[in-house]
Amino acid sequence: MNVYTADGPGEWSLMRDPAPEAPSAVYEMECTTCGHTSGATEDAEAARRWAVRHVTGCPRHTGFREITHGFWRALPPESPDFSVTPHSRERPAANA
Ligand SMILES: [Zn+2]
């Protein structure tokens, strides 16, 4: 598990978002000529197939930028337990 923490106590940490609904990555292809995009998808190959369809229709649009989105979660310094999701780390009330 990749966890990034600044040195010293009392620092926030950063980890890949463990939430089940968070995709590991989302991909998008963008034409560098006209700016049209594939739209975001979790299927990198689908984004690349869009680029092939785009250049087929616009043969002068041969440059593409691949954009990859990753999802991360910041954890406060008092929560060293990285094995649980942020939503389940809320402490119960003291008198509950
Ligand atoms: Zn284009």
Sum this structure up briefly:
By secondary structure, the protein is α+β, with helices and mostly antiparallel strands.
Q: Could you characterize the architecture of this molecule?
A:
With 96 residues, this protein is α+β, with helices and mostly antiparallel strands. The chain has one domain (3-76). Helices cover 15% and strands 24% of the residues. It is built from one helix and five strands; from the N terminus they run E-E-E-H-E-E. The chain has one helix at 44-57; strands spanning 3-5, 13-16, 26-31, 64-69, 72-75. The strands form two sheets. A three-stranded antiparallel beta sheet has the order 1-2-5, with no helix packed on it. The longest helix is centred in the middle third of the chain and has 14 residues, at 44-57. The structure holds zinc ion. Residues 31, 33-34, 36, 54, 58, 61 line the site of zinc ion.
**Percent in helix:** 10-25%
> H/E element string?
EEEHEE
Q: Structural class from helices and strands?
A: alpha+beta
Q: What share of residues are in beta strands? A: 15-25%
Mean pLDDT score: 83
Query: How many H/I helices?
Result: 1
Report the oligomer. Answer: single chain
- The tally of structural domains comes to 1
Biggest beta-sheet profile: 3 strands, antiparallel
List segments where confidence is low: pLDDT < 50 over at least 5 consecutive residues: 84-96
Over all CA atoms, what is the radius of gyration? 20 Å
Ligands present:
zinc ion
Shape: elongated
Strand order of the largest sheet: 1-2-5
Strand tally is 5
Terminus-to-terminus distance: 33 Å
